[in-house]
Amino acid sequence: MTLVPYTLRCGYARIVYVTSGHDTEIRLTIEALVDLVNALADAAAEPRGDQVNVRTLLHDHRFSRATAASAAAIDRVEERAASMVATLLGLPDADPEPTVAWINSQLSAIHITPSLTDHDGADLHIHWTPASATFDDQVIADFLMALSQEVCDHGTERFGSCAAVDCEHLFYDVTRNGSRKFCADPRCASRTHTADHRKRQRNVSG
């Protein structure tokens, strides 16, 4: 499958965050991907620390089938997502052309068959893989298709790296004026603002 501009408007989401249910689904899926990437990067940096609970992370991000997925399927999600970490952390500085080529190469390995579904009481949404697909294929396809739509609409400009000096986390900026500077960890903004305040106080007193 080749990446092309593609828009399907589906106004069934409970939350209207940008302009439509489809936009909301994209945002939620990319936020899940960003959280997973950051968690896997942290785990790789500290292999003796806490490991990533991929099942819980996906469930918390509304991947309802994560609860019943097999341990092997969860492991495959982790393995496949881990292989993407370096590329995804580099999105803030990436040019659209190589990003498009990378996404297309990833999509070529997955059988994409779009359909609408409202399983398990969820609002109507798109499944990109057939019902017979493995759970990891479903998750990775969701990630890649959300990323595809984002790159079609905005390139990579809404991805950023946390501005805190001791953090390299990725973030996804959907503010209207593109003003986000920090990742989802509130300690990063707090530490930076505190340090800036103390620096200003020293300059005044000095």
Quaternary? single chain
- The sequence of SSEs as H and E is HHHHHEEHEEH
Number of helices: 7
Record field, number of beta strands: 4
The 3D shape can be described as globular
> Largest beta sheet: what is the strand line-up?
1-2
What order do the helices and strands come in, and which of them pair?
Elements: H1 21-45, H2 54-60, H3 71-82, H4 85-89, H5 96-107, E1 115-117, E2 125-127, H6 135-154, E3 159-161, E4 170-172, H7 186-205
Antiparallel strand pairs: 1-2, 3-4
In short:
This protein is mostly helical and 206 residues long. It contains seven helices and four strands. The protein has helices at residues 21-45, 54-60, 71-82, 85-89, 96-107, 135-154, 186-205, and strands at 115-117, 125-127, 159-161, 170-172.
Give an overview of the whole structure:
The protein is mainly α. Helix content is 49%, strand content 6%. The protein contains seven helices and four strands. The strands form two sheets. Strands 1-2 form a two-stranded antiparallel sheet. It has a two-stranded antiparallel ribbon with strand order 3-4. A hairpin with a 7-residue loop joins strand 1 (115-117) and strand 2. The N and C termini lie far apart (62 Å). 31% of the residues are buried. The model is unreliable at 1-19 (pLDDT under 50).
